[in-house]
Amino acid sequence: MSLTDEFLKFSLLGAEWVLWLLVVLSVLSVYVMIERGLFFRGVAGADTEIRRKLIDQLAKGDREAAATTVKDAAGPGGRMVREMLEQAEYGGEAIDAAMNAVRPEEKVRLERNLAFLGTLGANAPFIGLFGTVLGIIKAFKDLAESGLKPGGETSTEVMSGISEALVATAVGLLVAIPAVVAYNIFQRRVKRTMGEAESLANTARSLVVGRALDTVEKD
Hints:
Elements: H1 3-11, H2 16-43, H3 46-59, H4 63-69, H5 76-86, H6 92-110, H7 114-146, H8 153-218
Helix pairs in contact: 2-7, 2-8, 3-4, 3-8, 4-5, 5-6, 5-8, 6-8, 7-8
């Protein structure tokens, strides 16, 4: 058994299946874009919206009201504060532990499926190029089997096969470019959202710990 012959048989399948693979990946990427777009639309400004109210409540020492404010929080900052308030009675170390435990979970929630877009954007052109190479191999194999024909018919068939093979590269780029653009946009949204969350969580921490220290000193 010749390994070259086996790979040649695989190559002669052509680029059609590669095109279908790119179509499937494109559909998945569109789904991820829509899902992430709706998600970020839901969390956009959520922490900023509750910030003033939450800080006023914590400044007054009203933890129950603050807990109610962040009970159904959509933003990562509100969710971090919710966990912190649940541990507030155990002191500053417990608050810090709660914040540090929830922070990576919220970042993972924001970045869900973004790795797929990044991977697709980086590799779709290579998948398309792979399809093009398979198409060209098939075109030249057909040329070798048919031989030269009068009137340039063979050249026309080969050029037609090569042009069809190049479609795979074009489709690969067509899939990759939107995925890369969407990935970069969502990554910026992640950084901005986490920045707002960190600001809210750190402010809340300082107020909760400060009130707790004041209570201890008075006692």
